Amino acid sequence: MKVNDLNPYRLGRRPGQQGPRPLSGDQSRVEKVVTGKASNTKNSNTNNTVASTNEIRLRKEILTIGTWNARTLWEAGKLDLLRHELKRFRYDIIGVSETRWTEKGETATGDFMWSGEENIHANGVGFLLSKKAKTALIGYNPVSSRVITARFNATPFKITAIH
Question: FRET label pair with 106: which of 97, 141, 145, 157, CA 20 to 30 Å apart?
Answer without folding.
Answer: 157
